[in-house]
Structure formats: C-alpha cells, structure tokens
Amino acid sequence: MANSPDGTDASIRVRFCPSPTGNPHVGLVRTALFNWAFARHNGGTMVFRIEDTDAARDSEESYEQLLDSMRWLGLTWDEGPEVGGPHAPYRQSQRMDLYKEVADKLVAGGFAYPCYCTTEELDARREAARAAGKPSGYDGQCRDLSAEQIQAYEAEGRSHIIRFRMPDEATTFTDLVRGEITVQAENVTDYGIVRANGAPLYTLVNPVDDAAMEITHVLRGEDLLSSTPRQIALYKALIELGYAKTIPAFGHLPYVMGEGNKKLSKRDPQASLNLYRERGFLPEGLLNYLSLLGWSFSADKDVFTVAELIEKFDIADVNANPARFDLKKAEAINADHIRMLDVASFTAACEPWLKAPHANWAPEDFDQAKWEAIAPHAQTRLQVLSDITANVDFLFLKEPVEDEASWTKAMKGDPVALLTTARAKLEAADWSDPESLKNAVLAAGEEHGLKLGKAQAPVRVAVTGRTVGLPLFESLEILGKDKSLARIDAALAKLAA
Ligand code: GLU
Ligand code: ZN
Question: Which sequence spans correspond to the domains of the chain?
C-alpha cells in the first residue's frame, strides 16, 4: 500500500470515534494516540467522530471533555468537530437520516430483516439451546417471515427490531496486529442494527460512517475484535448497495492490564485521564508512556519526543500481547520530559499549581521573582508538576510547614548549640553567595564535631520544615537573610520551650 519512497501513504484515513460517556480514560487516549501517530507518520488524515447515538448515556459535558482532552494532549484532527470537513457533520446524532436510509435499503435488499421476537421468547430459546449444548446466539427464527406472518405479528401489536443477516460462511481477515483471523459462521449470528423504537445501533452506524468517511484503517481496542466479522459482512452489503468502496483494514490494539493483572477498566481510578492532568503529567510525557502500551520505540530507548514517535510509529510494530500499565514507569518517563523542558517553559508549566488556592498560603503570598529564582533548582526534582508545591512552599508560607516527623528526625544531639552557632555564622555570611552560606554551616558543624550533612539538617528543617528538599544554600539565599534567620530563631524558641 505504500505509495511513496519512504514507505508512507498519504491516502491513509483513520478515525477516533469515542462515545461521549463519562470521563476520558487512558485506554481511550491510547487508541486516539495510535491512530494519530499512524496518520501523522504517513501524512494521512485523522478523522474525529463522535458516536453519540445513545441519548440515554451520552452527555454534552463528556463531549466537551473529549475535545478538551484531545487539545490538551495535542492530538490534532483534520476532520471532525469544530474543524469540519468534507464528510460533516461528525456527530452521529446529526446523521440520523443517513442511518435510516441505509437501514431501509438493507431491508429492501434482503441484507437485513425485521425480527418480531420478544425478549422473553429470545431468552427462553437461548436457555433451551444452552441446555441442549447448542450455540446460543440468535436462531434465525425471523429470517424468512412471509408477508402474512409479518401482518399477523403487526396485528398482534408486536414491535420489531432490524436484524442483519449474517452469511452462512466463515469470515477470514488479516488483522494488522494479530495476523490472520478466522471466525466460524455459528459464532456470529444475525444481530440487531436498529432498535424497536427506530434508533440505529453502534453495529450499524459505526461501519456506515467508516464507509461514508472513507476510512482505510480501523485501529481500536481488542474488546471490539468480536464485532469485526459482523462489520465486515455489513461492509460487503454496503459495497453492493453503493455505500462503500472497499473494506478497511482492521487492527486491534492489545488490552491494557492494571493492578493485579486485571484488565484496566474505564471505571478504575487509575484509568482517569483527568487524574494524570491534575497531578501534572506533561502531555508529551503521558503520550510517550502510553505509546509504550503495545508498541516500543527500540530496545534501548523508551524516552522520546512526540516528533520522534511520529517518525518511528508503524502499526506493523504493535504487539498483540497484553500491555501492563505501570504507574512508576509512567512517572519516571514524565520526569524525563520535565527535565527536557527549557527553564522558561518549566517555570510556566508549574505556575498553575503554585497560583492555585492552597490550604496554607494565599495567591497573594506567591512571589514571582522568588519562584523564578528557585525554579531551575527544582526542575530536576519533580516526577509530576504538582510535586512543585512541597518543594517550594517554604518561600511563600508565613511559617514553614509543621512536620513533626521531620522535626524529630533532624533535631538530634544538641540542636540548640548547633543552631545557635550556625545562626551567628550565617548572620555574618555573605547572603548573595550560597557558597558563603554553606561555609558558615560547615564551620558551625566543625565546632560541634558534625559533618556538613548532619549540621545542615536542623537548619533545613528550621527554615523549610522538611528534611529533604532543594539545595539548601540556594534556598536560603532566595528566601533571604531576614526570613531565614527569623525561622532559625523560631526553631530555637520551640526547642527551648
Ligand atoms: N464508539 C465506539 C467506542 O467508543 C467506537 C469503537 C470503534 O472504534 O469501532 O467503543
Ligand atoms: Zn426474531
């Protein structure tokens, strides 16, 4: 299919077609990402379609969230909501006329038929088939109803759904990820495409739109593998009726496993995209990690830019084995992306966390100049941007956070003696030079037989409230002489009490 010397193919058209229900989750993002990377790698077209035909479950709020998430991630689309395109509209709720027209033609052409079975009748026959050890899908009862039978059912006041007639032969197709797959006819029985109330089902509208939008590759989760033989059969009917030209290629992305080696479900808190956003994952970091769920860049490189991902991504390299979602690895990769930012971008990226209302400091306590001075020291320390708060809060709080565990850990031996000496030496030091501050604490330690590490611990806890943090002497310089010494005085008072 490659039509250019570098192996790419600009005729490729893929789609991302979520239903607007609930919050976006990582499985959904992984699907969007693989479609997008495949389209961008090939110079093809990314179609974004909203499958909102289930009025009971779909919501406008979820629709807005989907768009917002895609924008935040930088997963751009060439056709779809807001950008439009030659196959508009891209919301299925606005395409109902087409589905009605196709359903009518499928029935008229004998590809589909009305089924009058009630739920109770279907259940009873399914049970009986199971008990007899026979396949329990739809038994084809209404396949060949005569006009009289239909009339009789209508007279009885029965309603009907529309069922698609599956051919009585096995379906074979070559999955882009899994290779050749054959499904026997008895495992795929006739299935509903329109509800009794006339509402078209996913089984109809999804392939009808894939055909109308000339989708060449369907890349989606493994959970949809079982609908593929049905959709291929429907596609063949659409081709006969003139609604489709060719059957697209299908590729089913592997399951994502969560904790305890169970499939990551969209209800799993760990699966929520918003969680990663709120914790301060960078879009590039998250995309980098999610791309590794079923794909790999190379044996020795798992941190890469989005540009590198696009350059390298090929659906042929996707692995069929289940992928494991590993939060630690996701955070480590994100940390690398935080380091890759230039300082100005890093500084700006953290600000929403620092300027947001905090439990213990007000937005007006935030100090831009101090923040910009400390930011370069913080950049190598964070896994997620929200970590910034605990690293720099000492600059904005009226008093350092109170952390009894840190206090007890640092205030060992004779902290009063040490802090008194350190305070005197710091008082005389040059506060524009962290080296001078360090020498002051070093000298205080020497007087009390303490190495620098032991000597600086009480100073750190007195000033920042914590035992670990950013480089201490730069921190002191940025906080300033008056505040730093006042905090040491406060600690001495506390020790005396
Ligand atoms: N709306 C379907 C879903 O969200 C699309 C599935 C597909 O890609 O075919 O599951
Ligand atoms: Zn029936």
Answer: 95-253, 273-386, 404-496
Cis peptide before 81 (omega within 30 of 0): no
- CA 221 to ligand 1: nearest atom: 8
266 labelled catalytic = yes
Binding residue per annotation — 266? yes
pLDDT, one tens digit per residue, over 32-72 is 999 999 999 999 999 999 999 998 999 999 999 999 999 99
Max Cα–Cα distance, the chain, nearest Å: 107
Q: What does CATH list as the number for 273-386?
A: 1.10.1160.10
Residue 5 has pLDDT above 80, yes or no: no
- What is the third-level CATH fold of 95-253? Glutamyl-tRNA Synthetase; domain 3 (3.90.800)
Residues having CB closer than 6 A to ligand 1 are 17-19, 51, 206, 220, 224
Span from the CA of 232 to the centroid of ligand 2 (angstroms): 22
- With a CB cutoff of 8 Å and minimum separation 6, the contacts of 369 are none
Q: Which ligand is nearest to the CA of 149?
A: 2
| pTM confidence score | 0.94
Is 17 annotated in some ligand binding site? Answer: no
- For the domain bounded by 404-496, which CATH number is listed? 1.10.10.350
Which pair of structure tokens corresponds to residue 145? 């109803």
Burial class from Cβ neighbours inside 10 Å (0-12, 13-18, 19+) for residue 442 reads: middle
Ligand 2: centre distance to CA 151 (Å): 14
